[in-house]
Amino acid sequence: MKIVGIVLSVLFVDQAIKFAVLKYMYIGQSIPVIGDWLRITFTENPGVAFGIRFGPEGTMVVLSIIATAVIIAYVLKVRDGHAPYVLSLAFIVGGALGNLIDRTFYGIWVYDTGLFTGRVVDFFHVNVWKGVVPHWIPGLGGSYMALFPIWNVADMAIVGGVIGVFVFQQRFHELLAEDAGASTENVSQPSEDASSPSN
């Protein structure tokens, strides 16, 4: 099944690279790949995007489990729908599970802090832009800013999956409407056997 294949592929690549980073790099180490634009930088993220954290320890893990379970249930419900849409959802599931493994089990396997206390391992460091913000931008104008997201394969799968969902959702819903219309039409028309007179 393509859905399972995508999920397992994302999980394997994500966890394999994270294992290599944990084994061969030290926290904060940065290796240039394409000058300063693309680097491999080992960081850990205890929160969600941009390191945002809220609630007591373990809250993020519980919320991540719930969100991932909801997405998986939805994928199972629409698995026979428009393939590009469903496969985009599979990338989201694979990415969500990849980061969920970090948060759930790395506390035991890597940090010795216990279940649900792990941190997400990030490593792809992209220097998108750095410089002085134009003065006409309220609140930030004139200040120096650097945009350099550091993320991982799971994050990339999630972002790519979300983009795919936005791109293909209209066609997905159009096909659903067409199927619903065809089903209604078939039900409303009596079959030839039912309409023919009996002998």
Question: How is the secondary structure organized here?
Answer:
Blueprint: H1 2-24, E1 30-34, E2 38-45, H2 59-78, H3 83-109, E3 120-126, E4 129-132, E5 144-147, E6 150-151, H4 153-188, H5 192-195
Antiparallel strand pairs: 1-2, 2-3, 3-6, 4-5
What does this structure look like?
With 199 residues, the protein is of the alpha+beta class. Helix content is 55%, strand content 15%. The protein has a 4-stranded antiparallel β-sheet. Strands 4-5 form a two-stranded antiparallel ribbon. Strand 1 and strand 2 (38-45) form a beta hairpin. Helix 1 (2-24) packs parallel to helix 3. The chain starts with a helix and ends with a helix. The model has no long low-confidence stretch (mean pLDDT 85).
What is shown here, in short?
Helix content is 55%, strand content 15%. With 199 residues, the chain is α+β, with helices and mostly antiparallel strands. The termini are far apart.
